[in-house]
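As the work plan foresaw, our protein records have gained a structure token line. A representative record is set out beneath this paragraph:
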Amino acid sequence: MPKIMNCDNPVRRYFKYHAEGENANKSICKIQNCNKILAGNHLGNLKRHLKVFHAIEYQQILLEEDEISTDTTNTVSMSSTSSNSPDLFPPTQKRMHSADKTINVSIKRRAVIDGCIEMVTINGRPLKILEDSGFRKIVDPIFRSLGFTMNADVVRNHICNRASLVRKAITEQMKKKFFCIKMDTATRLGRTILGINVQFIYEGKIIIRNLATTEVYQTTSINLKCILLKTLERYNLNPKFIYSITTDNGANMLKTVSLIREMNRDFEYFDNNEEMSENVHNFEDNQVHTDEENSYDVSECSDEDNNMINEQENENNQETLPSIINDLGAEVHTLEVLRGMRCAAHTLQLSILDVFKTESIKSTINKSRRLVKTLRLPKNLEALKNMDLKRPVIDCVTRWGSTYDMLESLLRCQNFCQVFGRHQTRLNVDSDFWTSLNDLKNALGPAKITSCVLQAQQLYPGDCLLYWKKCIIHTRKINSFISNSIAEAMQRRETTLFDCDSFKLAIFLDGRVNVLLDENTLREAKNHLILLSSELHNIDPVIREGQSVSNNNIETDEVDDLELELRAAAADRSSGLVSNQDQVVLDIQREIVNFMQLPREDKSKNIMDIWTTLKKMYPLMYECALVALALPTTQVTVERLFSSLKFILNDQRNRMNPSLLEDIMVVRSNYLFDKS
């Protein structure tokens, strides 16, 4: 027979228990429009049903149970006082405890929900904190007063809803805009994470948004490309609006950019052939069917097979496209504005690591590491503390910035080593070592400062070039073997770093530094500017039409039939002379000629403030500047995203669901970007 339960519990008045009959050993909920049948008569199951489906009744039960527990506590306290058992509270503290005052708190339901979401996303607390007994003692009275409950499952749903709202806001903010992408991968607790950020200019400032922090299981270029496209599709963003993709120097990242560019070429090829004859469409349809019949899953191939497939596709395209153009006599433009940009901060690090490969410098650094490890022994730490010296830091081999910090901290312990080196052999080093250590630290000083300023969020391409050139100049002024080697390494790598049409255009549009461009670079920048202006016109031709009307000084308040006829005739005559696309090219070329006559701007000015004053004089170039100057020259914000990931994906939460992790990071990172 089933166990007889206490019928006086307030939970049971909402259920009818059947011991016999058709519903034997089952409880039926008596609340209106429910009639849920539960197995057995266990109090925990009944209470859980009320908690999930009947929040109001559940809150009433909590109030009644609170009153019962208060009476029970008083009874136990009195009985324990009369017994010989030890009392947890002295008499004076007990009187103070019983005399605690109650407070009235004014808070809205939305504020409570926002606070719980912020606690998990921004503050990095685990969801299980909402179930902690101490936390429930504080917030349960608030929940009961507001008439709702809050637990880990409820907060998880609120986080998902908040992430959806953030994504919708980003989609609306980026509608019909060119944007730049920054992406990188990192490994955390055995899980590989891909971070994707976008960057654009809005209201005169650089805006950064996090689109995804996605767990990936393969870091091949094809897989990264698919994940990027799926992410853009989630935000309703067209890949044709990608202006640039900034990555590190990884081969898979560079290959991903190449694949996206090839895809955009294919899109543009088909878009430009929409007006061809019916025979062309028939040819394309047949080609598509042929591809479908011969297609197979590329993701199942190895990287070597994928390279062979790409090479074969490129050869087929090179053979097929010219034949189509020659046969049909059509002009196909296969240009696009998308370019790949290398990270300047990462390139600076590679330049320093090139110098560290020198045998003499490598020997100095290795000897410094051994010396630091000796100083960090317990017997030496106590002596350092007595001399008011900080413990020297140990560096990370792949992060030269930490190596600089190690050298700096070691130089502060020079006197300590000279004193205690008489008694400890491992601390006894000659003066030549300290001289070479000081020279290395001084030579790295300008690069250390530059690596810090390159981490700024409001960093325009012109600022990056100024900081890079300034670092080379200050490093050469030190005039040592190490400093000259660093300057030469930076100059070697800047050729590849700045060999990007998007970067050249951004420098051309920056009146503070465009005097540094040579003739070939100027020509490439102008060509890219014309291409970008044409693409902007194709995206939103209404803007261009509005500018043409305003330039003709036509009053548009009252438009009669005669005015409409005159406009139609003017349009027909203009179309016979020059197309809209050609007119855009002519206008932008005219603005370029006038722009080249402007004097150089002061390098301390903000480039967006400069273009605000030039907006009316060069409207087409201004529209291009809003796109080109948003070019991210570093991917530091993605690195910060991974640093933020440590607070969410820690040792206690290393098995978090990938979708929940992405929702938390979308809410957290975009909040921090707005705050900064």
